[in-house]
Amino acid sequence: MWKLKGYHDSDLKNMIFYSLLVVLEARPYQLSFLREHHDFELKKQGSLSLQSNMADAPNMTGFMSVMSMKGEMKAYGAFTYDSMGKKLRFRSNESSATNASHSMDLLMFFEEGIFYEIESKNQSCVKKKLHCSMHPLDIPDDATFSTKEHSGSAAIEGEGLQLDVWTGSMPDKKGHYSMSVTKGCLPVFTFYFTESTSFLFRTMEIENEIKDPDLLAAPSFCVEQPVEDTPEGTVNGFLNEFV
Ligand SMILES: *[C@@H]1O[C@H](CO)[C@@H](O)[C@H](O)[C@H]1NC(C)=O
Ligand SMILES: *[C@@H]1O[C@H](CO)[C@@H](O)[C@H](O)[C@H]1NC(C)=O
Ligand SMILES: *[C@@H]1O[C@H](CO)[C@@H](O)[C@H](O)[C@H]1NC(C)=O
Ligand SMILES: *[C@@H]1O[C@H](CO)[C@@H](O)[C@H](O)[C@H]1NC(C)=O
């Protein structure tokens, strides 16, 4: 029988029992940490390996064009996207020829579920509730990996672009989308097909950073705005702004 100096047998038993308890209690946390870590590693590898697990889009600044399938240029302009904060600013470029009836300046807060239609000229602003969080800069969580394809040439250096294609259905199930992104999850183009209309969003000249963070903050003349009532049957979302 082994003994620890100065401890009774019962003390020793208690000590062993409580250390076991501590180990057991810690296990769920350890497991969930391991699981999260494993998922994270998978996600990280996804953007590098052939598996094409979904990765998150990075922060971005660039240009975006919106075209209807009838060939109308709906909008062209600069965007800024905060991929973690889920914030998007899009301002149409007035110097380019589009069929849009008005210039566009949108600031979307997908996490908060609100957005602003900004009119800088007369410093006016409309604040609205956001019903649909779909937009062409990030792959939706429920998208399905469709295929990996090489646009242009895979054989000639610098003449090709490897794309991952992700597909899914629209939230109301009355349509679907197909999204093509680079290995590093930069969006290249996205098609949205719905019963009534279809659109092509293209992105260009992307830089991997937020160049002007101020663009992602609501202008002072917007902040005090009350949220406008949504008319019955209206769905507000980034895509709906181009219909
Ligand atoms: C993206 O931008 C936001 C806001 O500026 C910043 O908090 C975040 O750290 C950036 N993320 C990366 C990956 O740089
Ligand atoms: C605008 O629409 C008209 C008719 O729908 C079309 O002929 C014209 O090419 C369009 N312009 C642009 C810039 O898309
Ligand atoms: C319009 O777009 C071009 C890039 O295509 C950009 O250089 C220019 O600054 C933009 N103009 C405005 C007013 O946004
Ligand atoms: C500002 O201009 C827009 C578009 O020209 C117009 O719809 C809106 O009513 C104007 N707002 C104010 C407060 O003048």
The overall number of domains is: 2
Question: Bound compounds, please?
Answer: 2-acetamido-2-deoxy-beta-D-glucopyranose
- The third-level CATH topology of the largest domain is outer membrane lipoprotein receptor (LolB), chain A
The amount of beta strand, in percent, is 35-45%
CATH homologous superfamily assignment of the largest domain: Lipoprotein localisation LolA/LolB/LppX
Spatially, the strands of the biggest sheet line up as 7-8-9-10-11-1-2-3-4-5-6-12
Mean pLDDT: 81
- The CATH class of the largest domain is Mainly Beta
Q: Rg, please?
A: 25 Å
GO cellular component, one term: lysosome
Protein name: Ependymin
Pfam families: Ependymin
Family: Belongs to the ependymin family.
Short description:
The protein is an alpha+beta fold and 243 residues long.
How would you describe the overall organization of this protein?
The chain has two domains: 8-46; 60-242, Lipoprotein localisation LolA/LolB/LppX (outer membrane lipoprotein receptor (LolB), chain A). Helix content is 17%, strand content 36%. It has helices at 9-46, 220-223; strands at 60-68, 73-82, 87-92, 105-109, 114-119, 124-129, 144-152, 160-169, 175-181, 187-194, 198-207, 227-228. The chain has a twelve-stranded mixed sheet with strand order 7-8-9-10-11-1-2-3-4-5-6-12, with no helix packed on it. The termini are far apart.
